[in-house]
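Slide 14.
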Amino acid sequence: MTQAGRQGSPRNGSGRNNSGRNEARGGAGRSNAGGFAGRGGSAGAGKRTFKQGEGRPFKAAKPREAAPFDPDNPTTAGGRSQAAKPAKPFRKPGSNKPGYGKAPGTPGALKPKPKPGNAKQYGSKAFGSERFGQNLGPVRKPGRNRGPRVDVPQSDLHDVDGVRLQKVMAQAGVASRRVCEEMILEGRVEVDGQITTELGMRVDPKSAVIHVDGIRIQLDETLVYMVFNKPKGVVSTMEDPEGRPCISDFLKTNKNKGERLFHVGRLDVATEGLLLLTNDGELANRLTHPSYEVPKTYLVQVRGPFPQGVGAQLKSGVELEDGIAAVDSFRLVDSTPGHVLIEVVLHSGKNRIVRRMFDAVGFPVQRLVRVKVGPIGLGDQRQGSIRNLGKQEIGHLMAAVGL
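Slide 15: predicted structure.
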């Protein structure tokens, strides 16, 4: 076919020649006047336009018919089946923090938040950094022989030739000097039974009686306080003329070997457990005096079964040859075939009092262990060992007898 015939053919008669393309590309198709044209071409170039009223007519989308709400099947609301989402499990606030769930006092455990309205919640504890002894916290009740808790002028307690109060406290191991100053300002320190809140106070360490949170600070470094876990067969004396094992045999390897010590109370040869040793005569006398009623806790093993009503009989009192005796508390700890373990607390210091009471009710003692005297307990101390009391323990022991 010739060139002329090719140009006049029906295929090329629709305006799709070179001139038409050039006009579409270089003419009005490049102009943006009147709206956006498809891919840069004009409406006359045969391209789709987005102008209203030209090209394909605009049709609005039909609204979807909403399905009726079925109260018995709410998951089909809106015309679509919606699967019910499972409820999220309840999580306590702070459960995602590291250390959550650990017992208080263990490494990594969360610190307990102070309770609102508790005026006794302090930021620092007395003897909080002490490595030895048990952490007994502040004394709950003041000693019975302590003075009234009132503020007094500093001049009445000030000793010009003494040592600053916060320095004395820091040297006694209460806390750092800065923390001791905060304790004084918070009203937690007593000097000779009177609260002081002034930092300029000077005291005589040899004569002043200082309490922090009710805990007595022992400033006499010559006084010794120890706990001995006495084994069975050891006599509660420092020397025995019959040559039986005694307390001094266990002090041979102790640094206080040559110290003159008193044993607070007694345990018979067959009884095991806690025995306090000290050279503080005043404390030893008060701990053994019946007027202070220092409680003592024992674990008693007897043959089983143990019938009901015997515990109530021990609490109400049993008749002994030297009078009526009763326990302060009675608790069944464990029971195995043929044996029963019982915990009793009493403040009487009479000779063999626990054994005689259980003999009176018809259950002779098979094994007897004293596990606690006042606030001091054996814990996990091994039998036959001696340990020094911590300063906080000493303060609690003194508070128990009003020192």
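Speaker note: Confidence is low (pLDDT under 50) at residues 1-46, 116-121, 142-152.
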